[in-house]
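INFO  loader      accepted 1 record
INFO  loader      residues=203
INFO  predictor   begin
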Amino acid sequence: MRHFTFKALTVPAASLFAAMLAFSSPAPAQDQADEPATIVPDETVDPIDRLFAELKRESDARQAERISQRIWARWRDSGSATANLLMQWADKAVTDKDNSLALDLLDQVVVLMPDFAEGWNRRATLHYAMGNHAKSMSDINRVLSLEPRHFGAMAGMAAILDAAGNDALALRAWEQMLKVYPANHQAQEKVGELADKLAGSKT
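INFO  predictor   done
INFO  writer      dumping tokens
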């Protein structure tokens, strides 16, 4: 999710709480002790899961960026020619500074494919750019419910929380991003800045 300059705002506590639910840990797996261990063939593993495993292991920022771009490429493909075309038209509308048209097109995407995380993320980005931060947060929450590893949405959430003055929640969002994308310099820097700021406020 691209980041834009925006003024500080106050996000209702209920909205922040709902948004942060996306960071809840998944339910623990049931005990499989009684079942024999099996080796899952590589071809049965979702390619995006392999990419996320590589991203988590990669410490080199440039290599990690290449992996992240491959993940973005998969996220951008909805599997629907119609939705992909609407997304392309929305991108052009944004480039042409026709945000109202872009928003209408993205509204159509999320109605057409409500389980397509990147449709919600693209609309969250547009709301963010237009200054509709509460709406952006709502869409981000939907993205993360569909794809909890969406580091772009996490960065967007962190930026909104940071601007709202919710340093502790912003720090948590950046930390969650680092769990998925450890080599991301922006997240590393923000974690350091916010941790120092919070530590200073306690002295």
